[in-house]
Design a protein that fits this description.
The complex is a heterodimer of chains A (387) and B (351).
Chain A lengths: L11 E2 L10 H13 L10 H21 L6 E6 L2 H10 L8 E5 L4 H14 L3 E4 L17 E6 L12 H10 L3 E5 L18 E5 L9 E6 L16 E4 L4 E3 L18 H16 L2 H19 L4 E3 L7 E6 L4 H10 L2 E2 L1 E3 L4 H7 L5 E5 L6 H15 L1
Parallel strand pairs in A: 1-13, 3-4, 3-5, 5-6, 6-7
Antiparallel strand pairs in A: 2-8, 7-8, 9-10, 11-12, 12-15, 14-15
Helix pairs in contact in A: 1-6, 2-6, 3-4, 7-10
Chain B lengths: L1 H22 L1 H22 L8 H16 L4 H36 L17 E2 L8 H22 L13 E2 L10 E6 L4 H12 L2 H4 L1 E6 L14 H14 L5 H9 L8 H8 L2 H14 L4 H11 L2 H17 L4 E2 L1 E4 L2 E4 L7
Parallel strand pairs in B: 3-4
Antiparallel strand pairs in B: 1-5, 2-4, 3-6, 6-7
The chains are: A alpha/beta (387), B alpha+beta (351).
């Protein structure tokens, strides 16, 4: 793609699940912010600041549009990343509103550890749910009464989706609980899973969405009643007296400030807006080429008897190990060939190491930047190694 | 040699890292980082925690990733070789560290970094060492390695002990004129064949050591593990000294004086003559000639010869051996007990 023309010939980047490459338009948007309207957002009246405010506001709207959510019901707040967003959300929940916290076994450490810490801090019991091979949760096996459920809607090691996300949200809401979705891996290529569903909060990382490093919490306004105030400080208040303050988040217009203490990463937020605009304009042909790329690589890997894939089906993110070859060594060898891919347990230690008992894995996670020649190169190098 | 090898290995690692850090700070930093990572991983493993990739894995991956691309089939056997090598390196490093610690402890507690063969330690004081038998095979050597630790730990309390010279029931030679009231008692253990004892004796004499203490000279012929005497004529010299003392107290001092300070007509010291040239018979003849010079008549010498052969003389030598080797755990002589302390090695004028 033209947007990734800075990629050198023969350079193959397969670590989009950690951090996607940024298209030129995103890089330009950030550069533009720094060179054209560098300013503190949401507090200044000069023209650069007004331009920043407009772009930040536009980004909030684009996030909701991308997810198909209504501004009347949801608020978009910016943080550092998904982990920070989940921790921030959990830290503000009123304990008395809930009976337990639940997560699932295939989670990234961001929900897995955050729920653990939440349980330790509040004394509420924590339950780890099983996930079926297709990614769904066997809902009938669990009691969601007044539960805080924090789960991903796409796995970070094999991309499996939470297929019954709608049913999960329905059951949890019926039981008086709330659902916080970790959408870090879904936002770039599987956001369709979130269409038409209304969880209480969605946390994701912009840097896995072709945007700069940034975290986003999209949350239902109704959640306000079940939350206490967390961090407070700059940019969050309408008025301050000697011993009291009036929070801006009380009004819908500035509700986002609930999670936004202090100055925000304005350039990154502007970059996210550019990324979303670009993503929404990616052509069907490009999506088809992307699908064709990851299918080709998946088919190649699944065709080799020495390769043990964690994936049950083709996905832009695929993890595997090879008989008799240390994955870290394999990663090192691929790097020598300019193929950048991640090795290890990808922050899913519990499931991959302790539940499945797998050795450290190799992960290929593709993106829209990948070219057919990339796949051919990976196949060629892998064939040599596998022979 | 073993302790020196251990020191050399550790020193080489230290010098290597330090040298690189000085001349190539970036590479030095990388080595230090790798070292810290290795230590972090080791520390985790010691606490039975997981360590996803350690230093060894990083090195192995870096080396073999090249091979993987060119000769994938070599990866497995080479990986095996690296695993074996890493175990060997770890064992050598652990051995080097433990041996270095053991040697330093031994040097401090026993005065020599080599417990079994003190004379082999160039870091220790100048002594004539009392060596143990060398292990003859690997199993013995391994067993000895552990028992040496025991010897060292046993000797540690001795470092803090007060040695009252009068408390030890040595068979000794009194200085002429007997002990003087009011002077402290000192013990001086020596072997007539030991060159370090000879120099010590001369130093002590020049410094007036024998006049400021009631010195009890304890003749001690060093024996090796097979019962052979380290200096071939030391035993007969000591036997004569004890025999002379039985007849005339203080008279054997002349023998010591001549061996440690005298020279023959060719200018060769008598100690060398006794150690290198004289046969047993020649040694006896020389001692008896000195005794004659000191006033013994033929009847006295005849009586002396009978006493020399008495088992009581052997008992006296063995009693001293028991005190020196087992009670004091002395690894080398001359050893002196003076002012409540134990001094092993050459006695210098400034001592």
């Amino acid at each position: 793609m033209r947007e990734f023309d800075y990629l050198g010939e023969g350079e193959v980047y397969l670590d989009g699940a950690c951090q996607s490459l940024r298209p030129r338009c995103v890089i330009d948007a950030i550069n533009n912010y720094y060179t054209e309207h560098n300013s503190c957002g949401e507090r200044v009246k000069y023209k650069w600041g007004i331009e920043t405010d407009e772009k930040v506001e536009e980004t909030r709207e684009l996030v909701l549009k991308y997810l198909g959510l209504k501004a009347k019901k949801y608020t978009v707040s910016f943080t550092l990343n998904t982990t920070y967003g989940i921790n921030l959300s959990l830290s503000q929940l009123k304990t008395e509103c809930f009976d337990k916290v639940m997560t699932s076994e295939i989670e990234h450490n961001s929900p897995f550890l955050a729920t653990m810490a939440f349980s330790e801090r509040t004394g509420l019991p924590r339950e780890v749910m099983k996930r079926n091979e297709d990614g769904s949760i066997p809902l009938s096996e669990y009691d969601f009464t007044r539960a805080v459920v924090v789960v991903n809607c796409a796995s970070n090691f094999d991309g499996r989706k939470l297929l019954n996300i709608k049913e999960l949200i329905r059951d949890v809401h019926k039981s008086g609980g709330i659902v916080i979705i970790d959408a870090a891996q879904a936002m770039a290529h599987s956001s369709d899973i979130l269409r038409g569903v209304e969880p209480d909060a969605i946390c994701f990382s912009a840097h896995k969405l072709y945007a700069p490093s940034l975290g986003v919490i999209v949350w239902q306004d109704e959640l306000m009643s079940e939350m206490t105030q967390g961090f407070v400080g700059g940019g969050m208040v309408d008025d301050v007296l000697q011993n009291s303050y009036l929070l801006s988040a009380e009004g819908k217009e500035h509700r986002y400030t609930r999670f936004e203490a202090g100055l925000q990463a304005w350039g990154e937020i502007v970059g996210l807006g550019a990324a979303l605009k670009w993503l929404m304009k990616v052509s069907k042909t490009d999506w088809k080429a992307f699908e064709s790329n990851y299918h080709a690589l998946y088919d190649f890997l699944s065709g080799s008897p020495k390769v043990h894939l964690v994936n049950q089906q083709a996905n832009p993110t695929m993890s595997f190990y090879i008989d008799g070859i240390d994955s870290h060594m394999l990663g090192n060898a691929l790097s020598r060939e300019n193929i950048m891919a991640r090795t290890g347990y990808f922050c899913a230690h519990y499931y991959l190491d302790h539940v499945l008992g797998l050795p450290p894995l190799m992960r290929f996670s593709l993106g829209l930047h990948n070219r057919p020649s990339d796949i051919e190169k990976v196949k060629k190098v892998m064939e040599k190694i596998l022979h | 040699m073993v302790c020196i090898a251990a020191f050399i290995i550790l020193a080489l690692i230290g010098v290597f890292v330090a040298g690189i850090s000085i001349f190539k700070p970036k590479i030095g930093k990388a080595y230090l980082k790798a070292l810290k990572k290795a230590w972090g991983c080791l520390w985790k493993k010691v606490r039975l925690q997981k360590c996803e990739t350690g230093f060894k894995d990083d090195v192995k991956n870096t080396l073999l990733s090249r091979v993987m691309l060119k000769h994938p089939k070599w990866v497995k056997p080479l990986s095996f070789v690296i695993e074996i090598l890493s175990v060997v390196i770890v064992l050598v490093a652990v051995w080097a560290i433990l041996t270095a610690i053991k040697s330093l402890l031994a040097l401090w507690a026993l005065g020599s970094c080599n417990v079994t063969k003190p004379s082999a330690c160039s870091l220790g004081a100048e002594v004539c060492s009392i060596d143990e038998s060398e292990p003859s095979n690997v199993f013995e050597a391994t067993g000895r390695w552990f028992t040496e630790w025991g010897e060292i730990f046993e000797a540690i309390p001795d470092k803090f002990k007060t040695y009252n010279a009068g408390d030890y029931s040595f068979n000794y030679i009194e200085m002429s004129g007997g002990e003087v009231d009011g002077l402290p008692i000192a013990v001086d253990i020596f072997d007539p064949g030991c060159s370090v004892c000879m120099i010590s004796y001369r130093n002590q004499k020049n410094a007036g050591f024998f006049d400021s203490q009631n010195v009890r000279l304890v003749p001690f012929p060093i024996q090796d593990a097979n019962g052979e005497y380290k200096f071939k004529n030391s035993e007969i010299i000591v036997r004569y000294m004890f025999a002379i003392e039985q007849l005339r107290s203080g008279a054997s001092l002349g023998i010591i004086e001549r061996i440690f300070t005298g020279k023959n007509s060719e200018g060769i010291s008598y100690q060398n003559k006794f150690n290198d040239d004289y046969t047993h018979e020649e040694a006896v003849a020389k001692i008896e000639s000195w005794i004659r010079e000191d006033g013994f008549d033929e009847d006295g010498i005849k009586e002396l010869r009978e006493i020399v052969a008495y088992p009581e003389i052997t008992d006296k030598i063995n009693q001293n051996k028991e005190i020196v080797e087992n009670q004091l755990r002395v690894k080398g002589i001359p050893t002196m007990l003076i002012d409540g302390k134990r001094h092993t090695g050459l006695w210098k004028a400034e001592d």
